[in-house]
Amino acid sequence: MTGPHNAANSPNFDVDLYYIYFTDPNYKIVGSVNHRELNQRGAHYAWNKDSGRMEHIAFPKGERRQVTYASCVGHGYVVSFTVDDRPGEATAARIRDGMGRMCNNYSYQHGLMGYIDQFGNESRVMLRASSDGNTMKLDNPANAHEVEPPSDAERTSG
What we know:
Elements: E1 5-9, E2 13-20, E3 29-34, E4 45-49, E5 52-58, E6 65-70, E7 78-83, E8 90-97, E9 107-108, E10 111-117, E11 122-129, E12 136-139, H1 152-157
Antiparallel strand pairs: 1-2, 2-8, 3-10, 4-5, 4-9, 5-8, 6-7, 10-11, 11-12
């Protein structure tokens, strides 16, 4: 997975995109399966932090497309960005909704995705959230039972 790429930045939204790919260049991601329960907005992780509501979304692999994301507070606050613009790679996003602190927490779980290569084989990975929700990284899917990352208090005291 790549590091974060800034897709949008404003007082209301900050969007970082991550691109997931197979390390062997002979394999391309052509499909995906999400193995986690998602909220109605498509996020596997949605939690309020001091800087706003953090949401992590692993987008279904498909054609290049524009995504419009609306703040959970409504009122016409939206941000748009492009996903699946890299052939053979999938897209995940970390979205900070600066107004979203008013919304309910949903899930503090990591993503569990299956990425399908051009031969029909599925490879599972875990998308692990950092404790502050600001970044994500790939992890072994065998750790998928670790539903919650350490809290900020545990991280600073330990």
